[in-house]
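Lecture notes, unit on protein representations.

Consider one protein chain, 807 amino acids long.
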Amino acid sequence: MRHHGPGSARAVLAALAAARPAAVLIEGPPEGDALLPLAADPAMRPPVALLAHAVDDPGRASFWPMAAFSPEWVALRWALDHGVPVRFIDLPAAHSLAIEAPAPGAGEAPRAEEGEPSGERAEDEVTPAVDPIRVLAETAGYDDPERWWEDVVEHRSPGGGTGTGGTTGTDSGTGTGDGSGATGAAGGDGGTGAGDEYDPGAALAPFAALAEAMGALREAYGDGDRPRDAVREAYMRIQLRTVRKEFGDAVAVVCGAWHVPALAARTTLAADRALLKGLPKVKAELTWVPWTHRRLARHSGYGAGIDAPGWYGHLFDVPDRPIERWMTKVAGLLRAEDRSVSTAHVIEAVRLAETLAALRGRPLAGLGETTDAVRAVMCEGSDVPLALVQDRLIVGESLGEVPDSAPAVPLQRDLTRTQRTLRLKPEAAERGLGLDLRKDTDAARSRLLHRLRLLDVRWGEPVEGRSGTGTFRESWRLSWQPELSVRVAEAGMWGTTVLTAATAKAESLAREAAALAGITALAERCLLAGLPDALPAVMRALADRAAVDADVGHLADALPALARALRYGDVRSTDTAALAEVAAGLAERICVGLPPACTGLDADGAEALRRQVEAVHGAIGLLDSGPARAEGLRDRWDAVLHKLAARDTVAGVIRGRAARLLLDEGRLAEDEAARLMGLALSPGTPPADAAAWIEGFAGGASGGGMLLVHDERLLTLVDAWLAGIPADRFTDVLPLLRRTFSAYEPAVRRTLGELVRRGPAAGAARGDAGRSVGGFGPGLDRGRADAVEPVLRLLLGRPPEPAGAAG
C-alpha cells in the first residue's frame, strides 16, 4: 500500500500474519539483501534509508527511506522476527544508477544533494500522464484523491471496516508515484497474483480489491507513460519465478499496487530477459544511513510523499484513542512555550475534531480536522503557535540510528570515531555550539568542523558569535542531514581519515585555483582546519600567482584573507612565517598601485574599490599589530590614504572614506578633516560628487552619524551644503543622501534633526564654559563627571577614592 502510511503498514502486518508466507519479497535493490539482517539489530532505529552510490562517482546516489510506519519496514521486521527469508526484488541499483547517468553532451544528471536523490524518486515519484488514484477517486465521487485513499484504504482496520489507527487529512501520498504508491501482498497462482490463492479473509480483502482496481486501470491506461516500469517489472517477474522454485507458491510480495497487474501477467522468461538485455551498469555499494522525519516530508525537497511524518508516527505508535493522545501532546508542547492550555482545552479540541469529521463525512477525524480544532481552541485562531505545532509535532525532527556493524567507507568510520571522542553527536535539529579555542577539546572540534567544510560536508556553519572579530572564540550552527552521508562517501576519494582527506583536497584546490583571492582564502581555511601538511603546496601556488598578478583589485581582495590567516595561525600556534612574507609583499604592491587605480572610475567601480580600501585598511591593521609586523607598513599605508583623500581626480566616495579612516585612527586632525570636507562641499563641486564624498565619509554603519552629532563644525558644513543645493539638482543627489542617512540608527537620525532645527549656535547659547559639543552644553561638567566616578569604581572593582584626593 502507501510507502509511508500507518494504516497501510498495519494492513500489511495483518496480511502477513494471516497468510504466513514461506518467503517475503520487497520492492527494493537486491544488492541490499546482505544488509537486511541489520534491521533486527537493537541499535537500528528508524527512520533509516538504504543508500546506494556508484563507487566511481559517489555523488550519484539513491535512497530508499523507511520509517517505523512504512509497510516495507513492517514486512522486513516481520520476516526477520519469524525467521522467514526476505529479499529485495526490484531492479538492481547497479542498473538504476547507470540509467540515470547523463547521455553524452546532455550535462550532468541530478545528484543526491539536489532534492531528487532516491530510487523512490526515480521509480515512484515521477507523475504519470494519468493519475490512477485520481481516476478512482473521481469515479467514487471524491474531488480529493488523497482523501479518498485515506478514507477507503488507510482508515480500514485489519479486521475490516474503519479503525482508529488510520491517517487522514494530509496532502501526502504517493498517488502521483507508481499509481498510488500502494503495496500489495502478492502470491499464489503463478507466483504473481495478488494473494488470490490464499484464503484472503478480512485481512487480505483490501489487497485483492486494489489488485482488481489496478488491473482495470492498467488495461485502460497501459504503463501510464512510464516505459521504465516495464524493465523493472520484468526483473521482478524473473526474481519471483526464482523464489517460487525455491519456496513454492506461498510467497508474499510487498510492492507498489501499480505493479501488481504486471507481476500477475503471464509472460515468458525469454521475453523478460530480452527487456533487460543491454542495460547499462555501474559498480554500486549499499549501506544503511540515518534518515529524518523532515526528509520524509515533501516540502523538504525529497519527494517521499508525506507531509506529516510526526503525525503518522504518532498514529502508528498509538493505535488506541489517537486523537485524545495527540491533543494531549499538542497541549504539552504549547504549555512548554508558556501558552495557557488547560485540560478543558484538550477536551473541547477533541470534541471539535470529531464533530468536524462527522460534518465532512469522514469515518475518522484526521490531521485536517485535528489541526482546525487546535487552531480554534488552543491557538485562539492564530497560525503563529500553530506553526510551532506543525514544525515540532506534525513534521518533527526525529533522526534515526544505524549500528556500527553497518558497512561504511573508511572516512565515515574515522568521522564517527572522532565525533564520539569529541562528544559531538550528530543531531537533525539545528543547534548552536560555542567554542573556546584555548581549550584542547574545543580547538579539536573547530578543526574537525573546518576540515569537513573543506570536504563539502557542511555539518556545521560558522556564525558571528558574541566575540565579534575575536580569535579565541567561534560560534557554529550544527545540523546533520541525511544527504551528508553521500557527501562523506564522495569525500572518501580524498583519503581514509578526515585529516588526510582534507589535506589532499586542499592540495588539489591549490593546484587548480586560478584567482589569487581564492588561494589566500584557501590558506586561511588550511590554518583554521589545522592542515600544516597542505600549507607548502598552498604557499607555492600563492607565491606563483602573486608574482604574475598585477591587478590591484585582485591583490586587495587577497590581502584580508592572508591577514586573518596570520592571526588564526598565532592563535593555533602555527608557523606562519612564509605567509607573513607573502602578505607583506602584497601590502607593498597595493600601496604602490592603489592611487593610480582610484582614478577614472565610474560609480560602480568606485564603490567596489571603496570596499577594497576598507578591507585593506583592516588587513594592514592586523598585520601591523601581529607577531609578523612589517616595519613601516602602517606609515606607508597612511601616506596612501592621505594621497587618496587629497587628490581631486580620485572618486568622491573613495576620498571621503580615506579621510574618515585617517580621522578614526587619529592620523588626521579635526581641523584638516573639516578643511577637506569644506573643499568637497564647496559651491564649485558638482552636487553628485559632493554627495558621494559625504557617503564615503559618513555613510554606512561606520559611526558617521555619531561623528556628525558630536562635531558641530562638520554638521554645520553638511547642513550649509544641503541648503545651498539648487532645487533642480537636489533630486539628482537625493538617492545618495537617502542611502547615506538611512543607515543611521533611528535615535541618531532624530538627534541630527533636532540639532539642525535648533541651529549651530543653540549649544553655545546655553553655556559659557568650554566648547559646545553637539549643541547639548559645555564640553565638560566636572561636577557631573565626578558624581559618576564612584559607580565606575564599583563596576570595575577598584577601591574607593581616598577622602580629599583630587578628582
